[in-house]
Every structure is written in structure tokens, then in C-alpha cells.
Amino acid sequence: MSSYYNEFDPFAAAWLRELIKDGQIADGEVDERSIVDVRPDDLRGFTQCHFFAGIGGWSYALRLAGWPDDAPVWTGSCPCQPFSSAARGRNGRLQDDRHLWPAWYRLIAANSPGTVFGEQVAASDDWFTGVCDDLEAVDYDIGAAILPAVAVGCDHARHRLYFVGHTDSHRESVRAVHAEASRLSRACGDTGRVALEDGVPARVAFRGFGNAIVPPLAAEFIKAYIECR
Questions:
Q1: In which band, very low, low, confident or very high, does the pLDDT at 99 lie, cut at 50, 70 and 90?
Q2: Are 134 and 183 within 8 A, CB to CB?
Q3: pTM of the model
Q4: Which of 3, 5, 38, 93 is deepest in the core (most CB within 10 A)?
């Protein structure tokens, strides 16, 4: 039972292997193919699957949240370039070749993982509407929240949309994640900060942040989901 990491960028893929070797993220295999070339059968037998894996932020966030390495889950942070503030006003954002949700959705629909966590820039309403429509079409319930990085002690806002999709007899618990995740935003108060127990691994340096989530923030969203189950 191991994790699968899909990461197209060679630099990030090499970094993932070092973090795995060092035990800082879940043990597993790194696949450098484009997600469009990954087949559903390629993922059979893996306990966790991390797409657009970057430098392992989701695996690390799961550990921070108390999610065991051997507990099934899929994660992914689709490329944000078509939906970032720099892309506002451009036409055809959903036709951008960096819009890779359809490729990830193809794998989700074929394999039906019980829990899927994802993240995207906050200014992505059209993208997330499509995500919700797609996941609901294959019997997932969705919970989501927009959370700022300042909530976990960062010195920048970096608002991100976090979402979770769940499919099984306990799907009703996912609806409650809206309220529980919103608790974090309210807890920020005027300073926009809450206490941190841990941070990014020491070996994860600044160069990798351009291709990474903020693990403590993702961990808070995961905790909110766990508490609602």
C-alpha cells in the first residue's frame, strides 16, 4: 500500500523523491507523465493518489491533519494559470490547454475514490461550477471554503478555494464542512491568524512554493472535514 504522485515538472518530481526518501511525505511512486496520459488502471492498488503533486504539500497537509498515510484519499491542485488574477479578462479560460480538470475528472469518474480534496485560486467561479457539476453527476457531495493563508500565520493573504468531494453512505457529513471550515475564517479576527503547531518541512525551500499549497492551511480544511464526519 503506497502513494502515487503525478507531477509533470522534473524539478518538482525530483524534489518529491527526495522528500519521500527523507520520510517527510508518504512513501510512494512518482510518475512524471502528463496527467492526460495516465490511465485509470495505472492507479489500481495505490492507497493515496496525489495529482499535480508539486512538492508534496497535500501529503504533508494530510499528516498535519492526522490523516494516516494508509487511509485512502485523492488530492489535487489543478494548474491555476488560466484562472489567476493575471488571466482575468482573457477569453476562453476553460479552453486553455492548462485547464486540466477534465483529465483529472476522467480518472475520478473511472475509479470513484471515496474522498477527493482539491484547491484552486479563489477567483475561479466558472471553474468550480464545472467541478461541482461534474462531481455531482457521478454521485459526489461537495463541501468548500475560501480560506486565506494569513489564517495560519503567513504574511500574505493568498485566498484559496479548498473543496472536498465524498461518495458513500456518509455523504451527508460533507455538507457540514462549509460551516466548520468557515469557523477558521471567523477565528482569524482582526489579525487573520490562528495558532500553528507545525509548518512546512524544513527542506521545502522558497523555490518550490510557486508550485505548492500552504500545507498548514490545507490541514485546517482537512481537519474541518474530519470533524464533520
A1: confident
A2: no
A3: 0.80
A4: 5
